[in-house]
Each structure stands twice: as structure tokens, then as C-alpha cells.
Amino acid sequence: MSIVNEAKNGKITEAMKVVAENENVEPEFVRRGVASGRIVIPTSPYRDVKFCGIGQGLRTKVNASIGTSSDIADVSLEVEKAKAAEQAGADTLMELSTGGDFLDIRKKVVDSISLSVGSVPLYQAFIEATRKHGSIVDMTEDDLFKATEDQAKLGTNFMAIHTGINQVTLDRLKAHGRYGGLCSRGGAFMSTWMLYNEKENPLYSQFDYLVEILKEHEVVLSMGNGMRAGAVHDATDRAQIQELIINAELADKAHEQGLQVIVEGPGHVPIDMIETNVKLMKAMSNNKPFYMLGPLVTDVAPGRDHIVTAIGASISSSVGCDFLCYVTPAEHLALPNVEDVITGVQTSKIAAHVGDMVRLGNMDQDLAMSRARASLKWEEMYKHALDPEYARKIRDSRAPADEDSCTMCGDFCALKIVNESYDLAK
Question: What's the CA gap between 28 and 143, in Å, rounded?
Fold first, then answer.
């Protein structure tokens, strides 16, 4: 019996209890969330995983994406990046390799960490077709479903599946046009295959078969966002919304059949459209967990797109987004290295916290930090910092003469002056 059906039957599973304890909510709250489709908990019959609840009323979660490319296919590097992402505080990991031995890479990554691991199986299907036949258009429908099942058997917990790209979606895309083209590899692969072969997307036309595979292996279905904008000027266009309509309808259908479902959202979105996108996604999907890819709020900051994303992600989280995909400094420029992965995770974790301050009214940690700062209690400050080691490293690298202060103000620390004169403590 799937976790959705167990929840609908009133059973509180061990996974639900763990999530409830981690989130400081009642187990019954989590059970109701899973039963209604508002919360998912990726699990696997093939490996032990660190349970992570994603959805309404829970802390915003952060995903880190890694994976090889056709230029750099170093398995040991990907394993190192996966471990670094977990150490840096990522809640989940996506393994998105497009070079090398796909199953070997994923198995080694999955075996190296305790996080839930996601994938995009159509990458494997299309690229293997290219290796075997010379072109992505030679992929068969059986290739696509076989890749999905093979990856599921490795203990992959959630999968981005591009179900919402159908002939109507492509008609909308062609009629409306795009400034920035398609930035989704999955969207590019599938739309090209459909146009060349003059066939419907099998992930859409054979959706019930897809659900059977995912249910058998307890994989969470993440409704892929193949029509997401790759430029802020394309945000919230007709193709994106058409895909959302289809994905929202299929998400309801999958949940009714006992499958856990996430709905993915757009990538490049200007600040004034973020709230609209989040609320639209939530309303149309009946409040299913919403996975935001970024979002990037400007297109002109390559090398610092992790900062661009943090701006958009904090707003997204504050208005109801449940799940953030990190972006690294290497976005749009190169395959991320270990340091890029760590920076991406840490930056998005800050954004998630900022959003949760509004979304959940969760400001206790900030209050504790403020009190520690006012009292110049440095060890307390480190305790409440999101990255204590980094904070300590900066202070120690420029140590003050007076251990109570820092070298920013030295002898003229405002807090020290006030503390010696009168008490403002609350």
C-alpha cells in the first residue's frame, strides 16, 4: 500500500512521525497533508533515506542538483559534490548526468548519501538513443519507460517527468514565440522528438502506465516544467501556463491513484510576477507541493546567479513555495564544482529561512541572535548562525584587541557603549 493510501486510511507511518518531530508539528497534521496531497515524503523500498517532508505548513526545503556533462564525466567528482551538498545542508539531491554511464553514476551517488535523490529519466533515454542511433529523434517509447524503471530500481526517490508537454502546449509555444528559447533540456528533447516523429508525448498519452511504474517503486512524481522561461521577458507566457494546466490535471489524477506528486514551477521570473506564479500554481494544483526552479529575477548577472536566485527564492518561499532548487555561481557558465555546490546550497538555505520567517512566522532564531548580539555573546551568536564555522572564520581572521567587540567598530562599538551606560534588554 502506498504512503498516500495509508494516509487516506488514517494510518500514521514512521516516516510521518519523523517528519512531524523534525518540523515541530503533530503527526496527524502530516498524515492529513499526505492524504490530501499537500505534503509528500519521498521514501524508497531499495535504500534507507533521511525522511524529508515537503509541502504546506512545513519548512521550505532546498534541493541541490549535480551531474556529469558530455565535457566533464568524472564519477568521483559527482560523489564528492553529493557529499558536499549533504554536508552543506541540502534537503534533497537531484542527479542529472548527461555524460558517462548513467546507471553506474547514479548508483554511486545514491550509495554515498542519505538524502532522497531525484532524477530526470528522459535524459538517459534520449542520450542513449543518440549514442546508439545517432539522434535523439530515434528514441522509442519503450526506451523512455525502461529508463524510468531502471532508475527507480536504484533507489531514486523522486523523478521530474515532463508530462505537460503535448501537442496543444507546442501549438501555444510556436504561436506565442520566445525571446529566450527553451532552457529546459527535457523540454527541448521532448518537443524535438514530437515534432520530428509527429507523435504525442508518450509521458502524456500513456500517463496511466507511467503512474503504474512509479507506484510500484514508490517514486514521487515531480511534474516537470519543460516550458519554463529561460529569460525574464518570457515569464508567465502561454506555453508555461498551458503546461501548468495539463500538469495540474494529471497531478490530481496521479494522487487519486495513490501516487505522491510535486508540481514544478518556472525558472526566470521578474520580482513583480513571483507571487502571481506561486499563487497560480498552488490554486490550480489544489495546493500540492510546489517546486520552484530558482527563480532568477534578472538575466544580467552571470557568475552571481546564486545571489539572483536567493532574491527570488526568498520571495517565493514567503508567499507559499514549498521546495527550492538551488542555483550555483556557475549557472549559465560551466559545470559546477564542489565549491559552487556548497555556495549554492548555503545561499538557498538563507533564502528558505528568510521566506519561512514570513511563511511560518518563524523568527525565534533571529530573536535569539539579536539578544546575543546586544549582549556581545559571541559563542551564542555562532550557535544561532546559519553557518557558524564561516562566521567564526571571518571574525578570527581579523581578531580585535578587545575580545568583546569586533574590528568593524573596535573601541567605539555602539552596543558596548550603550551596555555600559544603560540597560535596553527586553
Answer: 41
